[in-house]
Amino acid sequence: MAYTFQVTFDSTDPHALADWWADALGWEVEPSDEAFIRGLVAAGHASEDDTTTHNGNLVWKVGAAIRHPDGPQQAPRVLFQLVPEPKTVKNRVHLDVRAGDEDGRAVVERLLAKGAGFLHDGRQGPYEWATLTDPQGNEFCITY
Asked: Three-class SS of residue 115?
């Protein structure tokens, strides 16, 4: 049996990181269903402490997700979940983002201008990449 999966990042500010990654990838932040959240709180299945407001919307405090604009058949969903501690060590798994037909160096410069950090450039055979960090220190590569 083949399984599906989502990629999950630990985050001290999942909603802001979801916004950053959605912009970086050209993806969408999954919308919040405020009526559903309010209904669960009213029924006693959740509390006000389980929620927060982000960009004027009531959301679950514990996380936010992004998805490819063409749906899950194009790429796995990415979830950002709340954790109390900041990142402290190198990632053991990271995303390799392919620049495709875009100028890879221009993609790198755009992300640096939006808060990414630069770690190093790499090259192997015909492939080049830049290893960057997102605003919370998670490593990823832009391959071109």
From this structure: coil
For residue 29, give both structure tokens.
């932040």
**Quick count: other Cβ atoms within 10 Å of Cβ 113?**
8
The DSSP-derived string for 12-62 is SSHHHHHHHHHHHHT-EEPPP-HHHHHHHHHTTSS-GGGEEEETTEEEETT
The size of the chain, in residues, is 144
Write the pLDDT tens digit of every residue in 83-134.
999 999 999 999 999 999 999 999 999 999 999 999 999 999 999 999 999 9
Q: Count how many Cα atoms sit within 13 Å of the Cα of residue 91 in the half-sphere of its side chain.
A: 19
